[in-house]
Amino acid sequence: MCSQASKKIGSHARFSETLLSSLWASLYDYAIAKTQVKEHNYCWALIAFYYATEHAVNTLLIMLASPSLFEEPLDIWNSGRSSLNSLKKHRNKIFFLKGYLNINGFEDVHREYYKTLCNLIGKDRVERIGMILDLLYELRLLHNYEGLIIAHHRREDIETMEYIPKIAKMSCNVAQHAIATIVNAFLKWFKDELLKPLLKEEYFLSKALATAHIHHLIQELDQFKRQARGLRHYLREYLAKLDQTIEECKKLVEYDKSIKDYKYEKIVESFIKQTHVSSFRHKRDVYQQIRYLYSSLIEAAGDRRKQKSIESRALKLKKATR
Fold first, then answer.
1. Domain residues for 136?
2. What is the pLDDT of residue 232?
3. Secondary structure of the chain as H, E, C letters
4. Gap between the Cα atoms of 31 and 228, Å rounded
5. CB 116 within 8 A of CB 64
6. pLDDT reported for residue 309
7. I want to staple 25 with a disulfide (CB 3.0 to 4.6 A). Which of 3, 55, 115, 155 is the partner?
8. Tell me, what's the pLDDT at 259?
9. pTM score
10. Quick one: angle between helices 123-145 and 42-65, nearest 10?
11. Domain count, the chain
12. Does the residue 178 lie in any domain?
């Protein structure tokens, strides 16, 4: 396989892995928020509703960036070479969705993103998602940091606290609206803006990439369903739409036939491998940070025996990943 083809496969694989991870994070947080409302843990529910919506917005932003942003491995939210770097901050995402585009860095690119997004779902919907994210952000700050609310949000004898359950239920409604709008936009985009243009290109690689994208979505959705097994009743509508879109896309690319073709199979295999390899460095850093924090917690708890065991395993891992 030539280097140019390998590079294109890599960019699409990295893009797909990052995009779908953000989508699953949104749906998972939304389901968790619903469980917290049911259990009257309103502070945690509001925090989770915010992050569910923010991850959904991240899905939109990654969609807009397209595979071209992933031509080389980089941390899209932290690298100065990434057009999404300046949209990492919560407030900047809100400003962007509300149409305030003079955010430091990549202003021209953001204007193009905004125009594309308005064409995809309509300017009114974009601004409404921005308003919802803004409101949920303010609520998240209150319920994350304000001790008066955290300590008393279940007190029925305090008049103001009567609003908290109502706010949580209304937050559920607005978060659901934003997430549903974004999931619908993703499904339409996946079929019309990602797969169809690839299928129109007169290149075998492009058509194989369309098959690979569907294959990856099928794999990822299956894994997500297993992870969210106890929460799936909260996500029934979204999962059904994803299943339906997959079936439509499989027919579009003749998936059942192409996936058995040896030439397509090799491209798909390379694509899936790249989804793991391309994010390995980032995952490795995250996993090492988790191990370090776990080790530090063991030390803080005063368990020296466990501490030595953790340090030994961490050293072996470091040697293995060099």
1. 11-264
2. 92
3. CCHHHHHHHHHHHHHHHHHHHHHHHHHHHHHHHHHHHHCCCHHHHHHHHHHHHHHHHHHHHHHHHCHHHHCCCCCCCCCCCCCCHHHCCHHHHHHHHCCCCCCCCCHHHHHHHHHHHHHHHCHHHHHHHHHHHHHHHHHHHHHHHCHHHHHHCCCCCCHHHHHHHHHHHHHHHHHHHHHHHHHHHHHHHHHHHHHHHHHHCCCHHHHHHHHHHHHHHHHHHHHHHHHCHHHHHHCHHHHHHHHHHHHHHHHHCCHHHHCCCHHHHHHHHHHHHHHHHCCHHHHHHHHHHHHHHHHHHHHHHCCHHHHHHHHHHHHHHHHHCC
4. 9
5. yes
6. 66
7. 55
8. 87
9. 0.88
10. 140
11. 1
12. yes
Residue whose entry in the numeric block shows the structure tokens 């994210």: 133
Q: According to the model, what pLDDT value does residue 98 have? A: 94
Question: Residue 296 falls within a domain, yes or no?
Answer: no
Q: Which residues of the chain have pLDDT under 70?
A: 1-2, 148, 157-159, 277-283, 303-322
**Does residue 53 form part of some domain?**
yes
